[in-house]
């Protein structure tokens, strides 16, 4: 059958009929096989080795990414837990501060109430003293007016001892 492709017949052979040079085809095929052998021997093994190394590197990177993602998730969970604990602690501190502030306000209110009661008591005492002083002053003024009225009525001036006795007698008569 090869003979059909290469033979020169009266018709010129099949390859010649197709416009293909048989010698050039054989040389090209031999050159192709030499290139394939050279590439298979010297080019493809280092190339495959480099590709395998790159694949291994990518696989290692993917594993490292997975590990990093897992660590990130764990860190986020830990951070969320810490934040929750911190919020709980902060809420407790705020509640404690409010309680302490309420206690201080109550204490201040109690002190203010006691001070107000003391001031009112002092004011009442002062008022009682002022009223007693006013009564004494009123009694003295009344006695003076009675003496003056008596002098006017009697047209005579009484001495202090008689004035005092007359006033006392007048005051006892009214009671």
What do you see in this structure?
Helices cover about 90% and strands about 0% of the residues. The chain is built from four helices and no strands. By secondary structure, the protein is mainly alpha-helical. It has one domain (about 1-175).
Mean pLDDT figure: 85
Percent of residues in helical segments?
over 70%
How many structural domains are formed by the residues?
1
CA-based shape: rod-shaped
Distance between the termini: 170 Å
Model regions low in confidence, pLDDT < 50 over at least 5 residues: 1-7
How much β-strand is present in the residues?
under 5%
Q: What count of helical segments does DSSP give? A: 4
What kind of sheet is the major sheet?
Answer: none
Class computed from helices, strands and strand pairing: mainly alpha
Spell the H/E element sequence.
Answer: HHHH
Roughly how many Å is the radius of gyration?
65 Å
Structure summary, number of beta strands: 0
Features:
about 180 residues, rod-shaped
Write a concise synopsis of the structure shown.
The chain is mostly helical and 175 residues long. It has one domain (2-174).
Would you spell out the secondary-structure blueprint of this structure?
Blueprint: H1 2-6, H2 14-18, H3 22-154, H4 160-174
């Amino acid at each position: 059958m090869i003979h059909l492709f290469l033979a020169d017949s009266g018709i010129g052979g099949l390859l010649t009929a197709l416009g293909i040079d048989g010698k050039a085809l054989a040389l090209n095929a031999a050159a192709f096989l030499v290139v394939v052998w050279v590439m298979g021997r010297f080019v493809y093994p280092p190339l495959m080795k480099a590709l395998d190394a790159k694949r291994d590197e990518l696989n290692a990177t993917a594993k490292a990414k997975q590990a990093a993602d897992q660590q990130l998730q764990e860190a986020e969970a830990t951070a969320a837990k810490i934040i929750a604990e911190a919020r709980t602690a902060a809420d407790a501190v705020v509640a404690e501060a409010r309680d302490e502030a309420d206690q201080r306000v109550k204490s201040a209110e109690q002190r203010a109430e006691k001070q107000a009661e003391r001031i009112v008591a002092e004011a009442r005492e002062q008022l009682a003293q002022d009223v007693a002083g006013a009564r004494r002053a009123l009694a003295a003024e009344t006695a003076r007016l009675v003496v003056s009225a008596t002098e006017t009525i009697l047209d005579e001036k009484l001495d202090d001892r008689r004035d005092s006795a007359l006033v006392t007698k007048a005051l006892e008569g009214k009671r």
